[in-house]
Each structure stands twice: as structure tokens, then as C-alpha cells.
Design brief:
Helices cover about 35% and strands about 20% of the residues. It has six helices and seven strands, in the order E-H-E-H-E-H-E-H-E-H-E-E-H. The chain has a domain of about 140 residues: Rossmann fold (3-Layer(aba) Sandwich), CATH 3.40.50.170. The chain has a seven-stranded mixed beta sheet, with helices on both faces. It is an alpha/beta fold and about 200 residues long. The protein starts with 5 loop residues before the first strand and ends in a 6-residue tail after the last helix. The structure holds 5-O-phosphono-beta-D-ribofuranosylamine.
Length: about 200
């Protein structure tokens, strides 16, 4: 990779198991980046503990507060963030952040986009819809982030078969297992192939 090491921010809303997988990958030298900031859309997101226990900076993004988007952008700039990974972040990334990180934001989605995506399609809602459809497989998608939910260019997908007796919970668990392996690997490739690293 050319230029200085990438500086990654991870955005979460919930338990942060994918944040944990990314932190572990970084610590094991499997990510060509350091995780410099964790952004959460709620102050009580359990996953924030993964950041605070490692002394990684955190920022709470309160979408409804005046100036929230500008403050988020300032926090990203102050931490010299070059790349952003959404990991269970339930809010739309503000347009001014998307515009300042062109092709530098990825998202993880627990289904095979373009199906089962869009506003309100997250967590068990996705798995319930997949199971109700009678599909024989679901999966995991990693895609670039634009100004809409789940609509940017897909950069990786992996299929997860649906098995007899699957529930939203059992399917979610198998999908999480795939995510924890796939997301760090895809992010490593994506960062390595980004020729220009912003500082
Ligand atoms: C993951 O399943 C991801 O695909 C989706 O939100 C979930 C986050 O899980 N976008 P966790 O907070 O990383 O455990």
C-alpha cells in the first residue's frame, strides 16, 4: 500500500461483534489499518465497551441534534480517519460525510443484496423476511456506501444456506459467523487496493 497506514473508523449501533472481529484482526496484523475511532448512534451501545477497554476514542452521533453531521465530520477529521466501516450502524450516514469519503466507506449487510435491503431492513427483520420468502439461501454482503440505504456498489458476497428448522435467531448466528471472518478479510483487501490514502 502506498502512503501512510490507513486509519479506520468503525460505526456501530448495537452489540458490536463485528467491531470486535475487526479489532482482533487489527491486533493480529491482519488488517493494514489501525482502528482510531468508534462512532455509535446511541450512548448505550454495548459495543462501545470494545473501544473503551482499548482506549480507542469514541464519538456519539445523535442524528437529531443540531449540527450533528458537521460535528461527526469534525471528529473524523480530528482523528485523521482515512476509511470508514459500518458495522451494524442503523442510521443513514450524513451526506456531507459520504461526500467527504468517496468510495472510502463500506457497509456490512446480513443478506444477499439487492434483495432484503433498504430503510428498516436490519437485524431479525431481514432474517424473518428471508425465511418467509421460502428462499433456500441467504448470505452476507459488503458494499460501498452512498447516500441511500444499502445501495452502493457490492464488493463481496458470501452465501449462507438456509437449513430445515431455521429460525431468525439460528440464521442470524450462522450469518454472524460468516461476517466475523468475511468483513475483516474484505476490508483488508479494500484498503490495500485503495491507492490513495487520505490523511
Ligand atoms: C450484522 O449482522 C450486520 O450485518 C448488520 O448489523 C449486524 C451487526 O451486528 N448490519 P454486530 O453489532 O456487529 O454484532
Amino acid at each position: 500500500m502506498n502512503g501512510p497506514a490507513a486509519r479506520l473508523a468503525v460505526f456501530i449501533s448495537g452489540r458490536g461483534s463485528n467491531l470486535n472481529a475487526l479489532l482482533n484482526a487489527a491486533e493480529q496484523g491482519d488488517l493494514p489499518a489501525t482502528i482510531e475511532l468508534v462512532v455509535a448512534s446511541r450512548p448505550d451501545a454495548p459495543g462501545l465497551a470494545y473501544a473503551t477497554s482499548r482506549n480507542i476514542g469514541t464519538f456519539i452521533y445523535n442524528q437529531t441534534a443540531p449540527g450533528a453531521a458537521s460535528q461527526l465530520l469534525t471528529a473524523l477529521r480530528q482523528a485523521h480517519i482515512s476509511h470508514i466501516a459500518l458495522a451494524g450502524f442503523l442510521k443513514l450516514v450524513p451526506g456531507e460525510v459520504v461526500d467527504n469519503f468517496p468510495e472510502r466507506i463500506v457497509n456490512l449487510h446480513p443478506a444477499l443484496l439487492p434483495r432484503y435491503g433498504g430503510k428498516g431492513m436490519y437485524g431479525h427483520r431481514v432474517h424473518r423476511a428471508v425465511l418467509a420468502s421460502g428462499d433456500t439461501e441467504s448470505g452476507v454482503t459488503v458494499h460501498l456506501v452512498d447516500r441511500k440505504y444499502d445501495s452502493g456498489r457490492i464488493i463481496a458476497q458470501e452465501r449462507v444456506p438456509i437449513v430445515s428448522g431455521d429460525t431468525p435467531e439460528s440464521l442470524a448466528e450462522r450469518i454472524h459467523d460468516v461476517e466475523h471472518r468475511l468483513y475483516p478479510a474484505v476490508i483488508a483487501d479494500w484498503i490495500s487496493s485503495s491507492r490513495t490514502v487520505r490523511t
